[in-house]
Amino acid sequence: MSTMRVDNILSSGGTNTATINGITPAIASQAEAEAGTDNTKLMTSQRVRENVLKAGVVWEPYDGATGRIWSFAVDGAVTTITTPDFVDGWEYAFQFERLQTSSGSSTSFNINLFRETAGAYAGASALVASGFSTTLMLNGYAELLNPRLVRSHHVAQGFFAVNTIANALGGFAVGSGGAAHGTAQKILRAQFSCGLGNITGTGAAIYMLRRRNVGA
């Protein structure tokens, strides 16, 4: 058996530079990778990533970096946290870490959706009804479904855990919030707030993720 070593068959730009056994290698384009139907082209790591993202099966930081939209260490205590604007073709999820409120009383954690056509917020809706305070911190995850598709209603749903500051588990909650619209429309952005006091907490942060929207 003979062994042949071929270096630099393909340039970094995807230009064909050699033919082996009558086969001229070629790299799939982004469109071909996202379509996932061509069975003759090579897939680079970038093209694999584009294929997976297009399929809407994985979440990634919305900004291609950390995805963080607020942290107590950087931004301090705030009344509301406003997300960056949502982009067509994507849906979004949020990760909440060690959130507290400056209020000593148990209160809610809310989401408020900005209606794009109406040009106004729909009104705060509780993701977690209570159990959120200066002594109990909130950790969780929520998905906002199809915000950039025209719908008569939009819903965020998630899972949350309430812990004491010493990390003792206080309980679990499944929460959902959102808005119904008189006129079907898209959602441009969202806000988070608590029913009483400011959002605070040592080590507290909120992260925004995105994945390709596969709905119609």
Tag the structure with descriptive keywords.
216 residues, disordered N terminus, single chain, 13 strands, eight-stranded antiparallel β-sheet, elongated, mainly beta
Descriptive overview:
With 216 residues, this protein is mainly beta. It folds into two domains: 55 residues, no CATH class; 153 residues, no CATH class. Helix content is 9%, strand content 45%. The strands form two sheets. Strands 1, 2, 4, 8, 9, 10, 12 and 13 form an eight-stranded antiparallel beta sheet that branches. Strands 3, 5, 6, 7 and 11 form a five-stranded antiparallel beta sheet that branches. β8 and β9 form a beta hairpin. The longest helix has 10 residues. The chain is elongated and about 75 Å long. The termini are far apart. The N terminus is likely disordered.
Percent of residues in beta strands? over 45%
Biggest sheet statistics? 8 strands, antiparallel
Counting DSSP H or I runs of 4 or more residues, the number of helices is 3
> Which outline best applies?
elongated
In round numbers, the mean pLDDT is 84
What is the secondary structure topology, with strand pairs?
Elements: H1 30-35, H2 45-54, E1 60-61, E2 68-71, H3 72-75, E3 80-82, E4 90-101, E5 107-115, E6 120-121, E7 125-132, E8 136-144, E9 151-164, E10 169-185, E11 187-194, E12 199-200, E13 205-212
Antiparallel strand pairs: 1-13, 2-13, 3-11, 4-8, 4-12, 4-13, 5-6, 5-7, 5-11, 8-9, 9-10
Question: Gist?
Answer:
This protein has 216 residues and is mostly beta strands. The protein has two domains: 1-55, no CATH class; 60-212, no CATH class.
